Amino acid sequence: MSDGQLCAFWLGAQEYALDIMRVEEILNPQPSTPVPEAPDFVEGVLDLRGIILPVVDLRRRLGAGRAPSRAKPKLLVCRIGNRKIILRVDGVSEVVRVKREEIRPAPQLGPGAHGAYILGVWGPPLRLKLLIDLKALLRSGPRA
To answer: Does some domain include residue 144?
Structure first.
C-alpha cells in the first residue's frame, strides 16, 4: 500500500482497517436474503440499486466473537478487482491518513492463524489496527 487513507472499523473488541480505495460506500444495515449452502460467514445477498451482491459477516469470517452491546453495525460496499462485495462490521471508527512507513509488518502467526489475511499493523500502541488483505481473506477457505 502506498501513502493514502485507511477506513478503520470494529469487529468485536478489535479494530481493523482497509485501504479506503477498496471502500465505495458505507451503509446502514439492511436485511439480506440467505443463500442455501453458502459458507457460514456469507450472510446472504442484497439488492443494491439493482445489483445483487454477497454480504460477508466479517466478524464471523475472522472468528471475532460476539458484537459488543454498543455496536453500531455498518455495511461496507467494497470493490475487489471487477467484483463488489458487502462486508458487515460492528461499526466504523474513522478514516485516517497514513504514510507507508507508518505501517509495520504483520506478525508471523503460523499456519491456520489469520496472519495470512493481515497486511500490516498501524496505530498507537494502545489502539493498533490490523490492516486486512481483503483479496486473501475472501480467496482462502473457511477459517480453521
So the answer is: no
- Number of domains into which the chain is organized: 1
Q: Where are the beta strands (DSSP E) in the chain?
A: 4-11, 14-19, 23-27, 42-48, 51-57, 74-80, 83-89, 91-98, 104-105, 118-122, 129-132
Cell of 19: 485501504
C-alpha separations of 64 from 11, 28, 77, 106 in Å: 6, 20, 20, 18
pLDDT tens digit sequence for 58-71: 988 888 777 777 77
Q: Report the run of H or E that residue 137 belongs to, with start and end.
A: helix 134-139
pTM of the model: 0.85
Phi-psi region of 65 (alpha: psi -120 to 50; beta: other; left: phi over 0): left
The rounded Cα 30 to chain-centroid distance in angstroms is 17
The DSSP element (H or E) to which 138 belongs, if any, is helix 134-139
CATH number at residue 119: 2.40.50.180
